[in-house]
Amino acid sequence: MISRQANARVPALAISGLTGGYSQRRPVLHDLSITVYPGELVGLIGLNGAGKSTAIKHILGLMVPQKGEVRVAGVTLEENREVYRSSTAYVPEQPTLYPNLTVKEHLRWTAMAYHLEEAPALATIGELAETFRMTDALNALPDTLSKGMKQKVMLMNALLVRPALLIIDEPFLGLDPLAIRGLVTALDEVRAQGSAILLSSHILSALDRKADRLVVLHKGNRIAWGTPQEVKLQAGFEDAKATLDDAFEALVSSAEGGHSRG
Ligand SMILES: Nc1ncnc2c1ncn2[C@@H]1O[C@H](COP(=O)(O)OP(=O)(O)OP(=O)(O)O)[C@@H](O)[C@H]1O
Q1: How far is the centre of ligand 1, averaged over its atoms, from the C-alpha of 199 (Å)?
Q2: ipTM of the complex
Q3: Does the chain have fewer CB atoms within 10 Å around its N or its C terminus?
Q4: How many CA atoms lie within 13 A of 15 on its CB side?
Q5: pTM, entire model
Q6: With left for phi above 0 and alpha for psi between -120 and 50, is residue 105 left, alpha or beta?
Q7: pLDDT digit string (tens) for 77-98?
Q8: Hey, which CATH number is domain 1-87+208-262, 3.40.449.10, 3.60.70.12, 3.40.930.10, 3.40.50.300?
């Protein structure tokens, strides 16, 4: 839940009236608005092709809005490129690492790129390695790591930066149960330090438990928005036991002209 105090702060992410996509003639996103406050975790949900990645590309400044705007930490990319870029960290679903850098070298390189002070950064690297059970792998090259371990390196790099806005694409796939626990703990920590998180995932049970608010996208339209409880109500479920999967199915069915089952 957002507190009144959080509301008074500058949103980490403010998307308003965003229409955008790959061609002017057929936009993918239609008049999308999302606000994420410091310390909040907002879940981005939608079927394959709903527009989640396209929304993320707009937030990362890789695509230009056809209408509307995207603000990160209060600025648009045009207004202040440096603040915008340094306030955002992104963890893609597919890990991309430099083959010639060890895990620790990746982390040190990130620390340098973001101008972090060396001693506290090294301490945080040690803590992150413990959280993700990666201490023994700090000197390993990416080729010798499993997929889940590579993903952990990507997450550790993003968490090291403690950006205003952390965007994470489908983080739970490929992680072992202890790594998922470590991730959830680490996400709680970065939120407590004031970072906002936008997390795109198909694992709705995790978002039901952890998200402050959810955005449900369907064919580029926002079809529901609010706390998990509010989204369930919007789907027609008043029963506290209804799952987010139930609500999501009902919302999609209703958006496609079917009947909500709530
Ligand atoms: N490079 C591209 N060029 C043209 N159209 C694209 C491109 N990438 C995606 N699209 C289209 O944009 C729409 C939204 O796709 P997007 O990748 O944003 O969905 P998504 O919600 O991220 O899906 P998924 O859960 O499968 O990752 C789809 O209709 C897709 O075909």
Answers
A1: 17
A2: 0.97
A3: N
A4: 26
A5: 0.89
A6: alpha
A7: 999 999 999 999 999 888 889 9
A8: 3.40.50.300
Q: Which of 211, 219, 218, 214 is nearest to 233 (CA)?
A: 214
Supply angle C-alpha 56, 62, 68, rounded to 5.
70
Asked whether the beta carbons of 231 and 247 are under 8 A apart, the reply is yes
Contact partners, residue 41, CB within 8 Å, separation at least 6: 187, 191, 196, 197, 199, 210, 211, 212
50 Cα: distance to centroid of ligand 1 (angstroms): 7
The binding-site residues of ligand 1, defined as CB within 6 angstroms of any ligand atom, are 22, 28, 46, 48-54
Beta bridge mates, 169 = 200
